[in-house]
Design a protein that fits this description.
This protein is an alpha/beta fold and 276 residues long. It has 9 helices and 9 strands. The radius of gyration is 21 Å and the shape is globular.
């Protein structure tokens, strides 16, 4: 595949799910993407491609740079391409006639995809704006009373569920715009967690589902619907409805091609909400 196609496909995949770039419902580190080792900022299209990825840290590095720092890339993580221009010399009669620019790329990983990098090699995170947000008792009770619930941590400034360790990570509550945003995001990740093999054993969680595949899309739809069910059950506004609307354009073609998708996803979302 040509470099142009590689980068264009990334952008198209982001646009298909409304990422221009992705607007997180919490305050993250407002910093340009930069290389961890050289501390140089990525420029041009690279700033866009790296900036719209869902990582809290602005720092990136190559596989070799990670290895040189005695770190490693977490199993299953996929890198992001960074492009650069090179020059191809065209010779005629043994002499350089002209130089033609051509595009190449290499792969980088966010430090959030790495492990075992010494702490003294990672710059302190920029200060994150916080404000007072009140906990909602009925939402807290949903998670607290969930039997066989996964561990919930607030370590990294990003929201995700990691099946391999059965772990939900959430940004700190005080970095969200409001309480509803926090709990609807937590309910989204909690719905993902119900897919673990020891719970509902859902294919979208137990098997690797690359971005853009039908399995990935269905799992995201299940998580959004599950969060909506739980928000409705607890009586709070479904705060990520605007974010959910941005998914619709990407889902439309999938729904047109698979008339059963929305019905089956809703059924699985209901089962997930019941488990929680």
């Amino acid at each position: 595949m040509k470099v142009y196609e590689v980068i264009t496909d990334i952008i198209l995949r982001k646009l298909e799910v409304g990422v221009i770039p992705w607007q997180k419902p919490w305050n993250s580190q407002d910093s340009m993407p930069k290389n961890l080792v050289s501390r140089k900022e990525y420029r041009g299209i690279n700033a866009f491609v790296l900036g719209c990825q869902q990582y809290g840290s602005p720092y990136w590095l190559t596989f070799k740079q990670c290895k040189d720092l005695t770190g490693s890339i977490r199993k299953g993580e996929r890198g992001t391409p960074v492009v650069y221009w090179n020059w191809l010399e065209i010779e005629k009669d043994g002499e350089t006639e002209k130089k033609v620019p051509f595009l190449r790329y290499y792969t980088v990983f966010n430090i959030g995809q790495c492990e075992d990098i010494p702490e003294n090699k990672i710059p302190p995170a920029p200060e994150i704006t916080t404000h007072q947000i009140d906990r909602i008792s009925q939402c807290e009770a949903i998670i607290e009373n969930w039997r066989d619930k996964p561990e919930v941590r607030h370590v990294q400034q990003q929201a995700f569920y990691r099946p391999s360790t059965d772990l939900i990570n959430m940004p700190e509550m005080a970095t969200f715009k409001n309480s509803e945003e926090y709990y609807s995001t937590l309910f989204h990740e909690a719905t993902h967690a119900t897919g673990h093999e020891k719970r509902l054993n859902r294919q979208g969680i137990t098997e690797i589902a690359p971005f853009g595949t039908p399995c990935y899309s269905k799992e995201e739809l299940v998580a959004e619907m599950g969060a909506a069910f739980l928000c409705g059950f607890t009586g709070i506004d479904y705060a990520t409805i605007d974010n959910s609307a941005s998914y619709i354009q990407g889902w439309l073609s999938k729904l047109r091609n698979d008339k059963k998708l929305v019905i089956l996803a809703a059924a699985q979302a209901q089962r997930a909400a019941n488990v929680i």
